Amino acid sequence: MSPELARLSHVALETPDLESSLSFFRDAVGLEEVARDDGTVYLRAVDEFDHHSMTLTEADAAGVDHVGWQTDERESLDGFADLLEDRGIDVTWIDEGTELGHGEAIRFTTPTGHRFEFFDEMEKPDPPEERRSRLKNRPFSTVGSNPIAPQRIDHVQLWDAEATTFEEWLQDELGFHVQEYYDREDGSRWGTFLSAGGNKIEAAIIDDEEGSEPPALHHTAYRVDTANDLFAAADAMKERGIDNDGVGQHSISRGKFLYVRDPASGHRIEFNAGANVTFDPDWEPIAWEEGDLEDRQWIGQIESKERVPY
Amino acid sequence: MSPELARLSHVALETPDLESSLSFFRDAVGLEEVARDDGTVYLRAVDEFDHHSMTLTEADAAGVDHVGWQTDERESLDGFADLLEDRGIDVTWIDEGTELGHGEAIRFTTPTGHRFEFFDEMEKPDPPEERRSRLKNRPFSTVGSNPIAPQRIDHVQLWDAEATTFEEWLQDELGFHVQEYYDREDGSRWGTFLSAGGNKIEAAIIDDEEGSEPPALHHTAYRVDTANDLFAAADAMKERGIDNDGVGQHSISRGKFLYVRDPASGHRIEFNAGANVTFDPDWEPIAWEEGDLEDRQWIGQIESKERVPY
Amino acid sequence: MSPELARLSHVALETPDLESSLSFFRDAVGLEEVARDDGTVYLRAVDEFDHHSMTLTEADAAGVDHVGWQTDERESLDGFADLLEDRGIDVTWIDEGTELGHGEAIRFTTPTGHRFEFFDEMEKPDPPEERRSRLKNRPFSTVGSNPIAPQRIDHVQLWDAEATTFEEWLQDELGFHVQEYYDREDGSRWGTFLSAGGNKIEAAIIDDEEGSEPPALHHTAYRVDTANDLFAAADAMKERGIDNDGVGQHSISRGKFLYVRDPASGHRIEFNAGANVTFDPDWEPIAWEEGDLEDRQWIGQIESKERVPY
Amino acid sequence: MSPELARLSHVALETPDLESSLSFFRDAVGLEEVARDDGTVYLRAVDEFDHHSMTLTEADAAGVDHVGWQTDERESLDGFADLLEDRGIDVTWIDEGTELGHGEAIRFTTPTGHRFEFFDEMEKPDPPEERRSRLKNRPFSTVGSNPIAPQRIDHVQLWDAEATTFEEWLQDELGFHVQEYYDREDGSRWGTFLSAGGNKIEAAIIDDEEGSEPPALHHTAYRVDTANDLFAAADAMKERGIDNDGVGQHSISRGKFLYVRDPASGHRIEFNAGANVTFDPDWEPIAWEEGDLEDRQWIGQIESKERVPY
Hints:
The structure is a homotetramer. In chain A, strand 11 and strand 12 (about 205) form a beta hairpin. By secondary structure, the first copy, chain A, is of the alpha+beta class. Chain A has helices at about 20-30, 75-85, 165-170, 225-240; strands spanning about 5-15, 30-35, 40-45, 55-60, 65-70, 90-95, 105-110, 115-120, 150-160, 175-185, 190-195, 205, 215-225, 245-250, 255-260, 270-275, 285-290, 295-300, 310. The first copy, chain A, folds into two domains: about 5-130, 2,3-Dihydroxybiphenyl 1,2-Dioxygenase, domain 1, CATH 3.10.180; about 150-310, 2,3-Dihydroxybiphenyl 1,2-Dioxygenase, domain 1 (Roll), CATH 3.10.180.10. The interface of A and B includes residues 73, 122, 254 and 274 of A.
């Protein structure tokens, strides 16, 4: 049987100024600091039972160490290790505890140069007593949370000069499912929107039209509840003097968005509300063509193409 | 390999007055009429790609013909047929087209008296041209939709005098996953909240404390976007002279709710916003005990226990 | 010319436990502490430019010292003093600074036993630098505010055994305008909803059907933005272990509500969203009769009649 | 005593294609058609008790016939007529019924070329029986209303090459109150935001930086409930193939906005949520200077300067 992924787990980001980036992701955005170890800070969204969905590590420059994915079961981890080695890809085993919070893992670089990590088990530590919700199915109380704190990680958008190669490899080798895709007028692919677990877009693979750029992370999306929350988040950012990269709604996924970048690292977060979740076992990928709409965005605009290279 | 379910598909309801019930479910609630055939009307929510999630059939009295579930693949349908017959349960094969919109199916009665239907394939007809959204990933345009129209079916709540027997059978034989459960002070089980596909509560099995009652359907839940929509739906019902059974938020599932009953049949719909969806492959069932909170509802109340028997 | 009121300004509340009441009104509700002086704490809502809209003073028992109203101009203050004395009502002049934040004032007791304060000028101090919004038309930044903090005082609801006498006196002597009223089936008045400034309900005068009770304050309402905020406030209260007195929507005023009481004093706050504001110079009072609707509430219920006597 | 205005009442717009403009303002936006008479259609928002807040008349080109204002009482109408004639302005008396729904009126042209109408009384006809709300304080039921229908007229934005002359004249002669204003870096005035009744911005007077343009109307704003409604309105417009001119939040007034133009006439409507309303008798105008913020908008952008001349 083919090994399978369950879901997107986390992003491991590098920043030239850890404390400044924390003041963005923890203090301004509202992710919870879970642990610090060896120069890395672990962050978790308020509705996540899992140990973390983001790590920040100080480095010479902003970068992406890896994107982490969880397998459906332990056997799949070994299965993926075997499968990747069969394809001639170097697989590095990481001991449990090397990165806090999850079990042993494999790391590898995709043929297009994106570093991924796969693991099967992640801890689900209780929040500190004073932050614990009285609702047993909610980790953090709303009391004491940042009012704009997003709920949980939703997807990553990865840019590549060989996006088609990348998305096909994700499908063929790693078993990603295509949820939607967008073709340009000349038939070339602009973007492919894939799911690891099968229920929603977890990886958007975008063609880097400027070609020569290295593999990059355009943004990491976290889910909020409503469009009102996007305005609240934009407002809170403005009060802190942090501009945003636009508010609106994507046609693809139908997710409403607010984009904001960490001033220290340039890493961009998308606050996302209402993106499609599907439970359909026979989902047919949605095929968009340039010209279906006047714009790739249904409402509003994205005002920056900046992205952080691996 | 064990056969597997993918998700809750639809409810097949009986009403003593079809036109009156349509004026509730279609005109007041905003489900779309898809087809009529042989005394049955097929209804579909505005965000559903699938043929229908509810049928209404005129009968002597309000009742429940069956609750329909979709398998993950065709093999699972045969697998379930074999498995059920092995357990001594009568399985009736239903030809494609007997109920419009889906392929061949099996019907059977659970040991506790609930009638279920399993099938694998369902059609995804396009909406009428004038109702089609310009967004390719949304079936119906918001233009012309009822402003309170819910998005898609979410779960059913089934009552039974032998709820524990029922929920254990759903787990053991049909592979349902427990998402949450609630035990009374004396340790007896009040409710078990299960998922067919593994991502969210799709069947709530409630102990019928009045014991002698027949198996019953308490409500069918449809998802809306926000708590504001619950107020909008309550308002629209009031304008039509239809009282509601309460607005608030469940502790279990965290779903915000509005309950309203079809005046003609007594069938109850829950407008539901924000219930937990989880993509965690290692979800641990949430164990509630009486006393964890003062009430089973986090906010507000449900004001009626009426339910419709099978 | 007749003296005129401009608006409801503040409530001066007494509590048997000042620190506990502060932990409710300031920490849980999110009013800002402006000043402390001589056993009184001054509180202000986040969207108020004015010095305060509530004071809390420790006393033997919960009570209401006075309800404060602002006149349209300085001459009206003298005008009201003359007018009241003409009617044989004792008027006490209060020096500027006796109560912090406003100019000289008069205090008096209405014929039905409610203590009122009138003044003309109130200070508009800047918030502390670290709480100041970057928007010049908003006093407090959303950063650092309690996420459920209401925006500004909206109205008071006063109960009286002689409600009709009271509301007529407010109209005839003080120039209050009737926005809406509600008559029982037998023609007797249940409630009159009046405005001081003419744009919205600022004083709801309710017939105390248990007759023998002293004049009382049922609640002080503060405005929030949306129905979502009512759920957010209910949630935050539940997380703190504070039950609420119901969520829903009034028919009168159309305001959506959440009621919560300070556990220490019993003083009740209404979080209110969307109550009617009118700019119509020819507003005709809305006349409700029992039987117009099944209930006095359009949606939901109020679950307690507790009120705090003067 | 000086005559006084109570509020903005309506805009009288001209369009080259009446039916097309109706399909925008009535069918797409959701204003209710009240009456037709002599080539003019009268429109009313769903929360307005008054006869109309907009008229549409077919003409050779898009234009503005007048902006209508209601006086506080009948005497003020005569007072304004006298006052204007004293200033050498031609005043034309309009008989009751010339424009349906309101009493006799005066019309005149401001020194900057904007045509205004003043009147004192407006009818408050009941909605058609089938559209009447069961709430006595709400004219139209939500059942049957366009789901994005705005509640009531809020303000007009007028552009002028001599904006300073215009806003000073509005203050000095007509008694408008300044709520906010915005000065450029060189000290020149970009915009003044005035109130007729004293509670909120009703006329925004903007300096037409291209100088040579005739007096113009940039937009008419109608109020909706929440930011979610702005997204809903943008969505409904997109489904009809009508692009919008941006979504976001103004710094001035704090109103959240969506701008959309009638394709036939170019007349722009602003859906506005949450603009400041103040009941403060001592409101100090908010003084903005270029440089207070990076942009005149707090969130988002306005994407077009098109406006319709008188």
